[in-house]
Amino acid sequence: MTYTKQYEYKCPVDWSHVTHTVTFQKADQIHLFEDVVISFSCSRNGNCTKCAENYRD
Fold first, then answer.
1. Under a CB-based contact definition with an 8 Å cutoff, are residues 27 and 35 in contact?
2. CA 21/CA 49 separation, integer angstroms
3. What is the pLDDT along the chain (57 residues), one digit of tens a residue?
4. Phi-psi region of 11 (alpha: psi -120 to 50; beta: other; left: phi over 0)
5. One-letter-per-residue 3-state SS of 1-56
6. Per-domain residue ranges for the chain?
7. 7 near 22, Cβ under 8 Å?
8. pTM (global) more than 0.85
């Protein structure tokens, strides 16, 4: 099962207000113990890898 969440954030590059949209794969407690990030998008820069790392463990 997947789900999507949005987070309000301040961009570390220029401190502008942005929205991060993150899609997760729900953990099944058998093979996966934590939800896994499937995709990340930033309203300022969809390819931003710096902010994407905040949602990956």
1. yes
2. 13
3. 899 999 999 988 889 999 999 999 988 877 667 888 999 999 988 777 788 888 876
4. beta
5. CEEEEEEEEECCCCCCEEEEEEEEECCCCCCCCCCEEEEEEECCCCCCHHHHHHHC
6. 2-55
7. yes
8. no
Question: Residue 32: what residue type?
Answer: L
CA dihedral 31, 34, 39, 43 (to 10 degrees): 170
And the tokens for 29?
Answer: 């407690």
For the record, the structure tokens of 17 come out as 């207000």
End-to-end CA distance of the chain: 19
